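Cross-posted from the bioinformatics board.
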Amino acid sequence: MAAINMNDDVIESTQYIVVKIDDEQYGIDIQYVDNIVRMQRITRVPKAQSYFEGVINLRGEVIPVMSMRKKFFLDDDVETNKTRIIIVKTEAQAAIGVRVDEVREVVTLFDNEIEKRSYDKNKDEANDYLLGVGKNGEELISLLNINAVIAEDY
Amino acid sequence: MDTSQYLEIFIDETKEHLQSLSDHFMVLEKEPDNADTINEIFRSAHTLKGMAGTMGFVNMQNLTHKMEDVFSVIRDGNMKVTPDLVDLLFRGLDALEAYQDNIINTSAEGDETNKDIVDALIAMKEGKAAPAKQDAPAEKPKEEEAPKATTSVAAGSGDDSLRKYRDISFADFEKNAIKEADDQKKNVYGITVYIQENCLLKAARAFLVFKELEVLGEVVKSVPTVQDIEDEKFELDFSVVLITDAAEKAVVDAIMTVSEIDKVSIEKLDVNAVVNGGAEVRTEESSKGADSDSSDVQQAKPQAAAAAKQAKDDKKAQPKSSGKAVVNRSVRVDIEKLDDLMNQVSELIIAKNGLVSVSESDAAATDSQSFTEQIEYLERITTTLHESIMKVRMVPIESVVNRFPRMIRDLSKKLNKPMELYMSGEDTELDRTVIDEIGDPLMHLLRNSADHGIEDVARRKELGKPEQGSIYLNASQVGNNVVIEVKDDGGGIDVERVREKAIERGTITEEQAEVMEDKDIIDLLFLPSFSTAKEITDVSGRGVGLDVVRSKIEGLGGDIEVRTKKDEGSVFTIRLPLTLAIIQALMIELGDEKYAIPLNSIETIEDVAVSDIKYVKSKEVIHLRGTVIPLVRLYDLLDFPPREETDDNITVVIVSKGDKQAGLIVDNLIGQQEIVIKPLGKYINIEKIISGATILGDGEVALILDANALV
């Protein structure tokens, strides 16, 4: 978090890691990101939720990896040399890997550059995964509510 | 001082009090007029309230306060216990347990105020108390008054031996501080606080007293020193000199809000004597006891209230600042074990250097022999290191079982059956994680023995047994397992009655019952909701006993079996693995994936011709040395893509759980290996058949199959 002074109003800012999934850009709040690792061998876990790819060995810890594509019901993952696993840690002792197509950059967005999503119960469930939409120059970035994304489906 | 260091103590005590409340509520349900129980509940609620308040858990404090209020009305005989009330109390208890869980997990109580329960309690109290007596408000004892009922305040009467503060000698700077305070017209009190003899956490109580005093003023001197008090290096009393604006009564009241304080003796110190005199301090007597209602006290009240309010505000701020300081689970380690560890780590470094030097030396000299030697050396060190670390994690079982003798004594009184608990092997060590879990199952079994096992005196005389029943708790280490036996010389399990009951409940049919062996009948006891006690007692027989015991023990990777003989007694034998973290496993291959099967559940490995597979009720089985064993096709079970079976022979790993067996069909055997069990993480939902994962030598992750779930 950082803040700048603009007309005496302090505007909060947040840093996001911009990732690409399918054709869209998503932002993940950097405070939850522990690590970004290259694609590696994933051990399948039978009977797990369908969006889980399996588990990986990250420096001696076994960490589950989920696929954003599968979670968002997109086409199957295709592994390229840009594929990355983002290790997200929202609380101590509970890390989870999120597989994305590509990691682009880190951007700093001020609160006035973010369009908060309006709460509408009638909207589809995928919307719960979004905190809002950020404007980075000409580009739009969907800001992920990472806690909701990794939380279990009921 | 910061309260976070007392969080663990708080949690332990809270657990105890909640347990006691729950026990007593159950008693109350059956004996609504039991005065002892009501008093006990009142006391527990009161202590809980005090502790929660001190730790800054406001919601918890409020809820217990309301419970306490209701019980104070009941205790005074102005209200009867109704089933509605008991229900409400149980709801309150659940809410308190929820707070406790929150505190354990996050060290904050959470925002839930449980307003509905609080309101219902208030309504209960107002509704029932008001008509009983017109001056109902007077019935509500003030918070500060409650402890007085059970404790006494040593007023300024003659007993000099209680006034240890008189013996305090002061250093110059302390004298100056006191003189200065006197010049500012502040009160200087000498106080000696006596803690109840049976208090377990003297240091914590003393700390709470200090906390109260620091709210009121400044503690200039303490005997013994604060450090010594914190380290519990004192007997039952300690003395302090307090500089404060508050009056004596306010100070005494503040100290008395801390529970388990026996008495307080206090008086104003003669400042001149302190400043001028030597060790002998003359004091100016003030004979205001706790009940004094002098103007002095009246005047002090607003101040005390203000101070209390400020303290409350402070407390509110505290949990937030401490953030997520979750209670850490610690193990006390013998220093010798640590020394061993240190030595081995040193050796490890030497071994590493050895390897480095081998790899750095000339290519010609880097023969594989010296390399192999170094690897062997390394292997030896890692093995001993593993053993040492395991030893560090080991805790003697004593810490769990030492509360049992008391429990049996209480049960003996309650059930009116003389009995004695004999324990052996308390020094047997188990992994800390196992120790944490084993207490409840053992307690269940002991209660079971006391309640169902031991007969009443008349029956024992009839059978020519000694009047006093004996229960044995024996622990010992056998190979890689720890065996714990709970044995009694009581009536044993009445197999016929279990049989009848099982038929009555429809667990088995009469035809089944006839062919079932006694052993299988006894196994029925481990099914959920199966209790043979004719009447439910509060000791056991609620039908949540043995099945819970078994599932808990199996969850720890152990097993339980029972042997019994009519009129001679029964023996429950629990077998537990020494440690949970590292196990021996058989590595197998399925398709292109590797899995581990814990070795302790494997019986044999068989090569079976496909033509030998038989079908029973369209399920695949094999005949093996006279037993029929069902087959499990792991390949299909674990959701592999379908494939054609082409081999004439299959490899079957026979696993067992108790008497039951199953044959797991695998593709290939890799070999035996020591594996480190790792959890799969919080987010992934795994079926019971996978108990965890492990990391193989090449860094790959392999899943561990739980054979118990497959049988």
